[in-house]
Design goal:
mainly alpha; three-stranded antiparallel beta sheet; 7 helices; globular
Length: about 160
Amino acid sequence: MRNISDIIEGYLKAIIEKEQTGTIEIKRNEVAEKFQCVPSQINYVIKTRFTAERGYAVESKRGGGGYIRIFRVQANSRKDLIDHVLGGLQEGVSQTMALDVVYRLIEAEVISERESRLILAAVDRTTIRQPLPDRDDIRARIMEAMLLTLLYEQLE
């Protein structure tokens, strides 16, 4: 059974896919009313499911006429996407960020399901048994090495 966050995420993604521009503008209260939940639930979904690692940008305007705008960010090529992801790995990578990056690479068909399982196994917290922040740094270096390998493979 899907939870309310999954349902709201699916709804917002469906709207984004229908839009030619890949951009939607929503009012938090209206979406909350539609799903009979508190507005903070909408904030939670947007903050956790529509991240840069997953290929989205979000901007908002507060106040009575406020809105939340969600953009689907498309890379021009697989190389551009990998380069973009590599740029975000410099400060260390949390387990959640690693999941989001892998999810985006699968969605963009840069990696296969099997490759995603291998990457996630290699960077899992049970594999890298180090305290934070060392674990996040090691995870970033492993992901960087794997992505560079994919990048060079695609350039050949």
